[in-house]
């Protein structure tokens, strides 16, 4: 019987709940014996020239093995005027930027020694505000004439809204947030006697990390082995390797000893990349009957101090996904990303798509409010219809499949939309202090949109067990279980006889890894193809053993054995027998899946909030979600991904923001200050199932990792605004903190 | 200084620096690495262990303060024959863990919650877990796990 689509408890769990995962700081590998401990000395100032660095006192301190600055590094850093140095050389550009590296014998000595590194900073004006950054009044980089790192302010078509009866425009902030995986960044490394570097790194992509390390250190990629041990969450912020990893590899070579590094949470909040950080100006126009005719989105992306993914990739995805689930005839998008003296911005769960959805979903509500139509109705009128797929948007995306209206109707009926609207009206009429708000978001997103491939290899071992090597690099998603389910189904081998391996570049030399919700659709599809090849080959061997023609033998997946077709009593051969007869090369297939076609998961969320009009506090009471990513391999982990996504999306709407003062000092740099969402701020999640397959990969699946994050943020934001709509409130910025909400109520009452 | 701490039913006697935190005593001195460190402000609960049966954040307790006391970590929950504690089993059954980094602390906090309130409501579980952060699960399934371990209907 097929295990596909059944609830399978994760094979990953046992170790994690008994002895705990093996995260980088847990490793006690023999190669790391005698390791020195590392800490980066980081800039406390947002923008300054470095006058001088005096490391003499630090070098004399007890337990010190080394203190290094940019002057010691004999490796080249990224070229170009805006290249990011491994360690800051003559200028620092954000609070948290690494300036020096300290190595000590004992971890408790690190902070003491770091204190002794005497750095003389000559402060410059900090560029924090986006308009200030765009003005170019203060430039971050010498040799440039602007802080713009990508894109341009397009001349817009002045006639775009000419035939519209109603046009609404507004500027909206999609604030900067911290990915904050519970495990911070960490690495441990050692150079072997064979001259190779082995680095255990908390990463989503061991192979990309290897190439970054090799490039940075100026060595051949074959000289570097990266191993991703258990990773305590990544959410996009652990893609590849950060500059720190290169410095650690260099330092280990320099001092001739293994090095280990595990940053503090405060470092993590300022020095690991942040996500989001866009300013949107939306303009939406259409007819009073609810038809939207034109949409314009102008994006200013805060890239932070150095151009990483925030410079191009993030706004690129925002542009691509700008029109969302709607058939809008005319769409214009312009994006610019601009450098500021803040932590660099890169991927965070959704990476550019949540921003696109937040903008269009807020715009739809603004349009609905302007024409006095229910937001659900406006959406229904404008949805792309099921028969229109594949659908190419004006922004250039080719959507595969979608049932947008069905998804919306499903959440509205599961949530009891009509009853909720009645309750809302009742409370308003009664003048209740605590009002009710309903927020809708309909979304579509792109997964595996990177266009890169993935690797997979399947071995049938002589004892009949199966070992699969995946290029994907799960870190909490439960992919080992999903992949083992797929192979169990394909081979008829029980799951406990299947081992999934990942994350060691010596075992899996070529791979891309995990981001962009790509792993099941690419990592799973390639294993399926490898499995098919193995089965093809096995068929011939089995035919030989059964003394039959290959055309006459078949795999009986219920028994995990080969037999002559239609004659099960005529004897069978096991996988072990087939593998044993496979000869020298064994029974194995190694496949590269290069034909990557992105898929477009979609869904609808309905959020129900209560807002206390006296205090401004908004509380999420319910969230009802459809997240359709096609057929589900394991509902357990599929739901888990949705839950996690919902929580992070709600967090952005209501709570979380990484903020800076005007001088560029982060004001939310510890977990005591950063409002990381907790169990008390979330309700139980109400999930509604839908599964619309895609034709774009052999499994028919789309990605689920980011989907729920994308829908929930605007649903909750829209709900908060909706709660106060009767007072005339049209918009509240995120996060909808009590202060903001109270201010909006007050402004509305005073007619502002 | 010398400390004597009973850890998971075993007496341990070690020489440590005065400033050694309990979490580092467990991880580095004893090699019990399940207990994790997720912050530097006593905010995340990844380091939660039981001290004389009550949950504490071991990043905020000195090994010296645990001298003469009893500590239980997730490694000590599993029975002699490897049988899982009901809370461990429930975390797996209910998919109350993803990356697993918060999990040892979450499990220990949950054991302590149930010792104090054997039949909590879902809302009570949420409130009791406020000091334990998880970035992956959205907490829903963690609450379900505690409900299952309490022998109640998961949906409350
Ligand atoms: S490590 Fe975060 S509370 Fe102890
Ligand atoms: S499971 Fe990853 S932090 Fe909780």
UniProtKB/TrEMBL annotation, chain A:
Keywords: Molybdenum, Oxidoreductase
Aldehyde oxidase/xanthine dehydrogenase a/b hammerhead domain sequence ranges: 18-125
Protein name as catalogued: Carbon-monoxide dehydrogenase large subunit
Protein's organism: Gandjariella thermophila
Entry-linked SMART domains: Ald_Xan_dh_C
Gene that specifies this protein: cutL
One Pfam family, short name: Ald_Xan_dh_C
InterPro entries: Ald_Oxase/Xan_DH_a/b, Ald_Oxase/Xan_DH_a/b_sf, Ald_Oxase/xanthine_DH-like, AldOxase/xan_DH_MoCoBD1, AldOxase/xan_DH_MoCoBD2, AldOxase/xan_DH_Mopterin-bd_sf
GO molecular function, one term: iron ion binding
Superkingdom of origin organism: Bacteria
TrEMBL record, chain B:
Record-linked SUPFAM superfamilies: 2Fe-2S ferredoxin-like (SSF54292), CO dehydrogenase ISP C-domain like (SSF47741)
GO MF: 2 iron, 2 sulfur cluster binding; metal ion binding; oxidoreductase activity
Pathway connected to this protein: Alkaloid degradation; nicotine degradation
The organism's place on the tree of life at top rank: Bacteria
Domain 2Fe-2S ferredoxin-type: 1-77
Keywords for the protein's UniProt record, in alphabetical order: 2Fe-2S, Iron, Iron-sulfur, Metal-binding, Oxidoreductase
PANTHER family (UniProt xref): OXIDOREDUCTASE WITH IRON-SULFUR SUBUNIT (PTHR44379)
Protein name per Swiss-Prot or TrEMBL: Carbon-monoxide dehydrogenase small subunit
Gene name of this polypeptide: coxS_1
